[in-house]
Recover the amino acids of this structure.
């Protein structure tokens, strides 16, 4: 099980990304627009830099919804390999059988 503080920190980052998504997108559009003056584009870059760091989507990290584990994460299932194995062994994932030979 992951530390609760790390899981909560990740949730906080997700909230911040959602909160600042529209503002960040608008500033990026202004900064990339070739038809605008250099001063406007530069000001947009400065305002973009003033936004909180944790509001950037690249700072998000996928975590297992069962255990909070940040590594070995299956995007399609949204769980880690260890949680997947436990659930499959208990027969809680339909169609999945633990391999044996």
């Amino acid at each position: 099980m992951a530390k609760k503080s790390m899981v909560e920190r990740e949730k906080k980052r997700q909230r911040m990304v959602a909160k600042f998504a529209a503002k960040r997108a608008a500033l990026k559009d202004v900064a990339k627009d070739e038809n605008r003056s250099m001063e406007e584009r530069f000001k947009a870059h400065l305002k973009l830099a003033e936004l909180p760091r944790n509001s950037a989507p690249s700072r998000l990290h996928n975590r297992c919804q069962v255990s909070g584990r940040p590594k070995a994460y299956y995007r399609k299932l949204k769980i880690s390999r260890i949680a997947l194995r436990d659930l499959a062994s208990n027969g809680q994932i339909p169609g999945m059988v633990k391999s044996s030979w």
